Fold:
Amino acid sequence: ETGVTQTPRHLVMGMTNKKSLKCEQHLGHNAMYWYKQSAKKPLELMFVYNFKEQTENNSVPSRFSPECPNSSHLFLHLHTLQPEDSALYLCASSQPAYHEQFFGPGTRLTVL
Amino acid sequence: DQQVKQNSPSLSVQEGRISILNCDYTNSMFDYFLWYKKYPAEGPTFLISISSIKDKNEDGRFTVFLNKSAKHLSLHIVPSQPGDSAVYFCAAKERGSNSGYALNFGKGTSLLVTP
Structure:
């Protein structure tokens, strides 16, 4: 595997379910990100991890809980979501001193 | 309030002609700008970037122009090819952020290159 991978690619869940999104990067990067893309809106940054430490939480509701066990893996734990949380969730990674972020293919989440 | 704006949601260009995608920004602290390309069912792919100390950067068929006084940048694709049909996102980084930083994205412009 190369680049940034995300699983699952599609997820349908009820409002009472608990699920997790997984992201893995094979680029040797030290920073990882979660973004949300809703219909007709720009990509919105949710969380930033730098060397496994969370450095930014962009006012995200607590029903989204990130976890970064090491520099290569990033999780987004979901619980009691709302239908308006349905969106494309994108993971990205980057290397310090370089400005480009590399994105995974995303997880298309639908909350019923 | 959106700091990066792509005011044209879509653009249609004939194959072989020039495609010009525009982006405006409001934050004077932005010091680095990027263009991403996104196909359906894929994540955004980095295309080209420019630092605020430059006014032009070229990479093959892609050229980005930056006009700091107007807070405007544009992406030129010449000649356009059908495979360039995708959504193009403009993004900007704020000065002072180093490791682990936020990118501010525009809403994207959907480019269609017709044969």
